Amino acid sequence: xxxxxxxxxxxxxxxxxxxxxxxxxxxxxxxxxxxxxxxxxxxxxxxxxxxxxxxxxxxxxxxxxxxxxxxxxxxxxxxxxxxxxxxxxxxxxxxxxxxxxxxxxxxxxxxxxxxxxxxxxxxxxxxxxxxxxxxxxxxxxxxxxxxxxxxxxxxxxxxxxxxxxxxxxxxxxxxxxxxxxxxxxxxxxxxxxxxxxxxxxxxxxxxxxxxxxxxxxxxxxxxxxxxxxxxxxxxxxxxxxxxxxxxxxxxxxxxxxxxxxxxxxxxxxxxxxxxxxxxxxxxxxxxxxxxxxxxxxxxxxxxxxxxxxxxxxxxxxxxxxxxxxxxxxxxxxxxxxxxxxxxxxxxxxxxxxxxxxxxxxxxxxxxxxxxxxxxxxxxxxxxxxxxxxxxxxxxxxxxxxxxxxxxxxxxxxxxxxxxxxxxxxxxxxxxxxxxxxxxxxxxxxxxxxxxxxxxxxxxxxxxxxxxxxxxxxxxxxxxxxxxxxxxxxxxxxxxxxxxxxxxxxxxxxxxxxxxxxxxxxxxxxxxxxxxxxxxxxxxxxxxxxxxxxxxxxxxxxxxxxxxxxxxxxxxxxxxxxxxxxxxxxxxxxxxxxxxxxxxxxxxxxxxxxxxxxxxxxxxxxxxxxxxxxxxxxxxxxxxxxxxxxxxxxxxxxxxxxxxxxxxxxxxxxxxxxxxxxxxxxxxxxxxxxxxxxxxxxxxxxxxxxxxxxxxxxxxxxxxxxxxxxxxxxxxxxxxxxxxxxxxxxxxxxxxxxxxxxxxxxxxxxxxxxxxxxxxxxxxxxxxxxxxxxxxxxxxxxxxxxxxxxxxxxxxxxxxxxxxxxxxxxxxxxxxxxxxxxxxxxxxxxxxxxxxxxxxxxxxxxxxxxxxxxxxxxxxxxxxxxxxxxxxxxxxxxxxxxxxxxxxxxxxxxxxxxxxxxxxxxxxxxxxxxxxxxxxxxxxxxxxxxxxxxxxxxxxxxxxxxxxxxxxxxxxxxxxxxxxxxxxxxxxxxxxxxxxxxxxxxxxxxxxxxxxxxxxxxxxxxxxxxxxxxxxxxxxxxxxxxxxxxxxxxxxxxxxxxxxxxxxxxxxxxxxxxxxxxxxxxxxxxxxxxxxxxxxxxxxxxxxxxxxxxxxxxxxxxxxxxxxxxxxxxxxxxxxxxxxxxxxxx
Length: 1145
Known about the structure:
Among the domains are: 1-204 and 1037-1145, Rossmann fold (3-Layer(aba) Sandwich); 222-240 and 871-1021, no CATH class; 297-351 and 733-766; 452-627, no CATH class. 57% of the residues lie in helices and 12% in strands. It is built from 31 helices and 25 strands. The protein has a six-stranded antiparallel β-sheet with strand order 2-1-6-7-8-9. Strands 22-23-3-24-25 form a five-stranded mixed β-sheet. Strands 14-15-16-17 form a four-stranded mixed β-sheet, with helices on one face. β6 and β7 form a beta hairpin. α8 (225-233) packs parallel to α27 (1018-1036), α10 (352-387) packs antiparallel against α17 (629-674) and α11 packs antiparallel against α17 (629-674). The radius of gyration is 61 Å and the shape is elongated. The relative contact order is 0.14. This is ATP-binding protein. InterPro entries: P-loop_NTPase (IPR027417). Residues 1126-1145 are annotated as: Disordered.
């Protein structure tokens, strides 16, 4: 233990105040005033209001930082607020009232800015032979107050240096040069920089010494011993700084963690997009393959058809050649037979019967030809009549009746055809309308799937154009319908409320800041639609008074989107304050002007309205809310209905077209029937009778002729020859017909082959995949190739239709998942903005699938591994290092506090607290054991649990590291949010509770225990306060260090310490400070001077002149006693002794 042996008559150790100079400070005006303690303990006295506190506050300004600077500490709270640096610079001395305005204004000695102020304190260490002057020079430059903080390692006396006074007043640009010419000096722009330098030079331990200096000025009582030791005797070792360093490293890790979370979140939402996208790609590829196959069909089957044409044409050409050869043979045979027949005919004609038979043969031939023609005509006519539903006539009268019936049927068929034309047109129009409706619904569905609200596509597109033109987001100009929905519990009322608020739901809300731009855009743009928007002013007061339980407002929910929600709440109250009821009595009454029934009847005073038009009913027309699932379902149902209507209309149109074709065929049939003008062309009955008569005559003549044998033989030969000729001619005719058919077929085949060769001149190309499941056999004839092509096309079209249906389903699912990825709800605030910015360029459309796939690939193969690696690196190599540093810092600070208490106890041990028996004070520090959840002990336990250990770092276990990060994150975030708690728990001084024990020197037994200063008498409190304060000052001033050649600060100001203390304790305090080698400046009224007289060497007497200015005299005790007898004359202006006269500037 180091015993202190500083009697109050001993030499003066450490740095002690020699001279204090003030110029233009408070009421010390236009003169340089000096206080000259010259290292001794002195007393500053004078009447109240003379300027003692002004001198003290000059020292406070020089020696304490602005954050701990408290002026006029000896006065009450109101008086403290009256004193500021500005009031001291201006020389405020009171207040006055303007006679005209009655305004109270401060009275000052130095109005304006044309002056400067100077404060300087010179300290000297006699043993080290060192002198240090601290000065503050203030002046106004361009209307702004500028303060220069100066340190000079020598004595500077402004009162004795006229040149420096002139430079400071008139030539502020040269004073530095002047001071530098006298030796070293340093200038600083802030108190903190300056204080750090002179604390080091004066031997001050820490900033806490400056705080103690300020505290001792106005110390009256100790208060809580625990808090005094913690706050005034111990320094804050910087736990906050260590936390901030750790938190900055943690924030870097947190940023990477958020990136990692975002990447994982995006991958989760992108996985369904990838799965559905794969199906979409497969179906799209299948459709492309089918399209390729369909495009290739004509060429593939054209080549097959060309091959079969070539083969068949070759065969027909061979048939044609064989036919020509046979024709030549027949011609030769006929040429040989004809002369023989001619001879036989001449022989038979030589008889009369033969001539008549020849005539009959000619007539019969003509009759047979007419009969054949008329019978064929009659058969054709009968077939036409039968097909027309008419009877075949057998007489001229029946023919006329049939013709008249045909004419009537023709008129009816023409009328029916016109009717069918009208029906075809009507069904075609219905089909077109259904198709347009289907396409419109499909567009609405696509738009709804890309959003979450129920606003129609036309209105969202109108808003989108506006947002793009003004660089706004849709969230900045919402529709009322996007912010409003019917509560689920009130679903029964939704149809009626939707009808009532359908129009308002499609109105936009525009903030005041964007209103001018929106107005300009709307004026200059053809919107191609109707737009209503409201200007919304932030902070608009709500006008929602008392509402009934059945009020419309209670059935609605407003989205939490300020400031729109407040405006909308007020708007609904003002304009849609409807009561919802199905009570007929209320509906028929007159007390409630605004009523709404669940069926949609709206009563507005005397006006009643109910709109049940088809276009106004159903979920398909809902616009309120932010969940469009029900509307999507309604639209999909309506889409199915429109598809069915389109199909039904198409089928009906086709039926009427078929009917029309039937009618046209009937009219053509009737026209052919009516083309026969007379019955004669059909009368085969008369011709048949004429033929029978001729045949009968021929038979009689033949009988007569047969009686002639020669003639009979000639006739037999002629008959055989003619039969042979007929056979040959018949065969020739058949061959001629066959030849014509062959020539036509060859021409047709050649033309087809020529066309196919022109269309497909090259060699056959490979058959594309997917054209057919199994290749059909080579066609035997061209028509079979066409049949095979038609069958292949039907199969491909069927497959295309099936795939198209699947593709539409995949597109819908894909679009929905893309929209969910672009705007997931909810998103963590940490990366919501970044997510939306990254996804702003992505579209919820299949065309953007490649962008989603690239995003997924980048996330999975680049970003996620990179973020995982960065997270592991920052956690194990950066944050945990700062964690361990933070732990070490707190542990070291805790040890430092313990060590400081030990050093303070060494100082206290040198002080006799009581003499009978001899005792000393010993500080005691115990760990805080508060049981509160937010108490220090609980937080220390949380710190210990959250901060990982060194083994975790060595193990490099990522799962344990992430778990540790989770605990650390919770703790750090909570500490960062709650500054009060953070300052409390990270200040290790709060980990300990401080008390004091009074210990007997001889026995080391504890005599008294002081947990705080409560419960003690005023004298006991004062004595304990002086003892602890003296030890604290000695500790912070480095006054405990052994040896006299160590730098230590020794100056203390005590302002009116004895005003509330008894003489015994005051004497104890003065002896205690003297024993510790401290230089005191005691500030006290004149009535307390006798108590302090044994301890002081001179006085500083402050007086206030009639001009409201202050002056200070430096007097010895003897001079003061001489002046005391003539105090009245001195107050009246008796000259002061020569050594006390001030120097006028």
